[in-house]
Amino acid sequence: MEYRPNPDRYSGIMQYRTCGHSGIKLPILSLGLWHNFGSVDNFETATAMVKHAFDNGINHFDLANNYGPIPGSAEENFGRILKRSFINHRDEMLITTKAGHFMWEGPYGDGSSRKNLISSLNQSLKRMQLDYVDVFYSHRYDGFTPIEETLQTLVDIVKQGKALYVGISKYPPRETKFAYEYLKSQNVPCLLHQDRYSMFTRNVEQEILGIAGDNGVGFVGFSPLAQGLLTNKYLHGIPEGSRAARADGFLKIEQVTPAVIEKVKQLNELASNRGQTLAEMALAWALRDNRVTSLIIGASSVAQLDDNLKALNNLQFSNEELDTIERILA
Ligand SMILES: NC(=O)c1ccc[n+]([C@@H]2O[C@H](COP(=O)([O-])OP(=O)(O)OC[C@H]3O[C@@H](n4cnc5c(N)ncnc54)[C@H](OP(=O)(O)O)[C@@H]3O)[C@@H](O)[C@H]2O)c1
C-alpha cells in the first residue's frame, strides 16, 4: 500500500530549533542510521522506523559512508526507502552523510584527504540515489591530512552542488576554531558540529559547545542514550539481540559494568519519579542547553522511537533534579 505521511507531522509533538546562525531549523530529535539499517538488519523494520520518524516530525536523517554492516548498506537501504516511499518528500528532508573513517582498502579509503572525501561522497550519492546531500561532514580530524586540504574539499563539494552545507564531526577544539574560520573565509560557513553528548559523555561541555555557540554553528549531539546504556535495557543483564550482545555492535559488554549499572539504577528511579522512562529523561536532559540544536538518536524498533519521542512531553527540570543528576553522575 502506498505510504501517506501523517498530514499533522509538523503540528504535533516535535519542536524545531534554529541551527546556529543559519536559516535551517532542525527537529530537536533526529534519526541516525549507524546501527539497525544495514544489510544484516530487517528491512521492513528499518522502513517502519523511517516512516514513523517522519510521521512525527523527524525530518533529519543522519548517515555516513560506512554505516551498515556491511559498510555502505545503510545508505543503500535508505536510498531504497526514499525511492519507494518518499519520492515526493525529498525537499522536506535534511539528509546528511560523512566520510573520514575506514571504508575501503588501500591508501585512499580512509582519512580526510581530498581523494577520500570526494570519492566517498560520489559513492554515497550513488548508494542513496540522490543528486545531493543537505550536509556533508568531515567525519573526523585525522591528525594527518593538512586541515586546509580537508576544509577546501568541503568548500569545493558545496561549489560542485553535491552538498548544500558542510559540517565537521569530532574535531578537537583548536582544529574546530581553525575550521570555522577557514570555512567562513571561503563563504561556506560550517552549519553543523557533530559530537558525542550524553549524561555519560560530557566533554563537549568544556569547550566545543561554547565555540560552536559563539561562532553561530549548530551543535548536534550523537549517542545521547550512550548507545542504550541510558535506558532501562541493561538493568537486569544483557538482553539477547541488544547492541551490547551483538557481535557487530559498537557497545561492548565490558562497558556494561556494575558501576555504570548502579548509576543507571539511580537515574532510572529519578526518571520514574518524574513520570518518565530513563530514555525520555536522558534525552530531555541533553536538550536542556539551547546550544544543542538536535540529538541524533538510534533505535532498533518503532516502539523505542515512540518511547524516545515521549521525552518531548517534559523537557523541564527543577534545580533539585539537576543537582540530583550531578550527584549520581559524579
Ligand atoms: N559522528 C560520529 O562519529 C557518530 C558516531 C556515532 C553515532 N553517530 C550518529 O548518532 C546516531 C545515534 O547513535 P546511537 O545509535 O549510538 O544513539 P543512542 O540513541 O545513544 O543509542 C541507540 C540505541 O539505544 C537503544 N535504545 C534506543 N531507544 C531505546 C529505548 N527507548 N529503550 C531501550 N533501548 C533503547 C537501542 O539499542 P538496541 O539495539 O540495543 O535496542 C538503540 O539502537 C547514529 O545513528 C549516527 O547517525 C555519529
Q: How are the SSEs ordered, and which strands pair?
A:
Layout: E1 16-18, E2 25-27, E3 29-32, H1 43-55, E4 60-62, H2 73-85, E5 94-99, H3 114-128, E6 133-138, H4 147-159, E7 163-169, H5 173-185, E8 190-196, H6 208-214, E9 218-222, H7 258-273, H8 278-286, E10 292-297, H9 302-309, H10 319-329
Parallel strand pairs: 3-4, 3-10, 4-5, 5-6, 6-7, 7-8, 8-9, 9-10
Antiparallel strand pairs: 1-2
Helix pairs in contact: 1-2, 2-3, 4-5, 7-10
The chain binds NADP nicotinamide-adenine-dinucleotide phosphate.
NADP nicotinamide-adenine-dinucleotide phosphate is lined by residues 32-36, 62, 139, 169-170, 194, 222-228, 231, 233, 242-243, 279, 296-300, 304, 307-308.
Describe this structure in words.
With 330 residues, the protein is α/β, with parallel strands linked by helices. The protein has one domain (16-232, 283-316): TIM Barrel, CATH 3.20.20.100. 36% of the residues lie in helices and 15% in strands. The protein has 10 helices and 10 strands. It has helices at 43-55, 73-85, 114-128, 147-159, 173-185, 208-214, 258-273, 278-286, 302-309, 319-329, and strands at residues 16-18, 25-27, 29-32, 60-62, 94-99, 133-138, 163-169, 190-196, 218-222, 292-297. The strands form 2 sheets. An 8-stranded parallel barrel has the order 3-4-5-6-7-8-9-10, surrounded by 4 helices. Strands 1-2 form a two-stranded antiparallel sheet. Helix 1 (43-55) packs across helix 2 (73-85) and helix 7 runs antiparallel to helix 10. It is globular and about 50 Å long. The termini are far apart. The mean pLDDT is 97. NADP nicotinamide-adenine-dinucleotide phosphate (NAP) binds at residues 32-36, 62, 139, 169-170, 194, 222-228, 231, 233, 242-243, 279, 296-300, 304, 307-308.
